[in-house]
## 1
Amino acid sequence: MSNYNYTCFEIKLAGFPIKLEQSRKKGKLFTVTYGAQINRDLSYSEGCEKLGQVIFHALSLDSKVDNSGD
C-alpha cells in the first residue's frame, strides 16, 4: 500500500480501467483515473462528479446506457 494514495475503488469497464484513490496527504484529496485520463487533487464532491461521469461514459461505450437524449 502506497504512503501517498489509497485505492478506494477499481473496476474495468468498456476495456478501460477506472480507479478512485484518496491521498493520504494533501488534505485527503481524490484522484480519478480513466484509461490515460488522470484527474488529481479533487475535493470529495468533485471526485463524486468525475467518477460518475467516467462510469456513465464507459457504460455508454459498452451500450449499457443510452446517452442519445443528451
## 2
Amino acid sequence: MEVMIAIGIIAIGLTPALLLQNMVLTRVHRMGTRLHRVFLAKQFLFTAREKREKGVDEFYLEDQEPAPKTKLLYRSEPVDGDAKFDGLRGLYSERVVLSWQDGRDRQRENLVTFGFEPVRDRKKK
C-alpha cells in the first residue's frame, strides 16, 4: 500500500515537469524549423539576385522547397512614388515571401531588403 502511495506522489510531481519538457521541446522544434526557413529565404534571395538581369525594373521568381515544405516568392520592383525617397532614382525593394502549412494554421514570413543601382545619365556632346 505504501508503495502505491509513493508511486502516486512521484507521478503527481513528475507529470507537470514532463508536460513542461514536452512543451519546451515542441517550441524549440518549431522555432528551429522557422529559422531554417529564414535561411532558405536568404539563400533564395541570393539565387534570385543572380538570375535578375541588370537594368530590369521588375523581376518575379517562384520556387517550392520540399523539406521543409515551403513556397518561396521573390519580387523586385523600383521604389517610386514615395515622397520619402524622392530624388533617389535607382532604389528598388526586394521581397521574399515564405508560406507554409503548420498543422491547421497557414504561416507566412517576409524578408524585405532595399538595393540601389545607380542610374547613369548620358552626357550630351
## 3
Amino acid sequence: MVATLGLITGLGIGAVAHGAGTAMAPEPAKLSTSLSSSTGATAAAILVTSHVPTRVVAYSTSFMTSASGPAAGTPCSSSAMAIDATTTHVIQVYVSSGYTYRR
C-alpha cells in the first residue's frame, strides 16, 4: 500500500496514523459489523490503537474520477470483510488537471 503523509495527516477519524519506528502507517481498523463488497458500502469499525469508532468503506483498488466520495485516509477494503477482520488500507485522493481521483 502506498501511503502519503499529506493524505493521512490531520484528517480526523479514520485518518489517524501511528508510528512504526520511523515509518508512518494508517492505524488498523477492526470491523464490528460485516462489510459487503459493493462499492460505497460501509461497516462500523474501531481503530485498533486509539479505540476510536470509525467506518470502513468498500472501494475500488483502481483510481476512479470522483468529485465527491470518501475522504483521504478513510479506512477501506476492496473486498467483503467479516466481523472482527482488520484492514490497514485507506482511501487515497489526488487532484490532477482539475480532476479528483480516489481509490
## 4
Amino acid sequence: MKEKKYVICIATSTDFAIATAVLIYSLKKNLRVYNDCDVKVLYNNLDSHSQNLIRKVKEDVIFEGPKDNSFYKHIDKTIYGKDNYDVYLSFECLHQDEYQKSIYLDADMLCIKDFSGIILGNEGGISWRIPNLGTIVVGERLLGSETYYKFIDAAIKHKFVNNPGGDQDTLRFLYTVGSDVQPIHEKYNFQAFGCGGPGTNKNFLDQKDDVRVIHYSGRRKPWGGVYDGRSLDEKNCMSYPYMCFHSEAIRIWYRYYEEFKITHISGNTKFELYQVQNGTIIEDTLVAL
C-alpha cells in the first residue's frame, strides 16, 4: 500500500490545464482529507507547459497515462470527437489498488466546501451521482485490474461503444443499482446553475450554502473562450457568455482563479504585483497604480 490512504484522480488535457490547477488549489483549500491523498493527473495529451502549470499548485503531483489504451482502437468517436478518448481516462481511477480509496473528479469542477464525508463514508463499493460521473469514490472492494478490465470490456462490447458519453454509459450499465452502489447527493456534483445548462442562477443561489463541488459541464467553462460555432465537438468554451457573466457559480470560479494566481504565479503586471504583494483581489483598475 502507498503511504497516503487515498488518491485523487483528475482527467485532463492541455486545454484543461488551468482548470485542473485551479481545481487542485480548491481541493487544497477546502478538502479536509487532502493531506491524506496523493493527486494523480491522468492524461493522453498534456504538454510540458501545462504540466509545469499544474506543478505550481502541487509539486509532487503524479502525472499518469492510461495503463491500457489498446481498447481505444475499438471506439470511433466520443463526446470530444473522433480520435479523442479523454473521457475514458475516468477508468484509470479503478486501477488504484495501492490505496484504500480512489476519488475521481472531472477537470471542469471546483471544490467550494469540504466533501470528505462521502470519502470516509464510502463502504467499499462505488459512490456517485447518477447519471453523471463527474464525482466518483471507489472503495477497496472494487479497486484493481478486475474492475478496470470489466469496464473496458463493457465499453467495447455493448451497444454504446460509439455513443458520445461512453464512460458514463459504461458506469450506468454496470453500477446503477446493487449492493456495490452508494448514490450521493447532487451537491457533490452540482450542475444545476444555468448558463444554458441545467438549472438557473437563482437555483444555485438558493442552494449555494450546501453545494460542495460545482461541475461546469457542457459549454459553461469559465476559463474557455466564447463558442464560435466551428465544431459541435468543441466543449472548452461558453455558449452563452452573457448568461455566464451573470452567474454566481461562474464568478466563484474566477475568484478561485485569482487566488490561485496570487499564491502560485508570480505577478507580471503592476496590477498582478499589487495583488501578490497585498494578498488581495482587485475588483477594478486602481488609477493610483
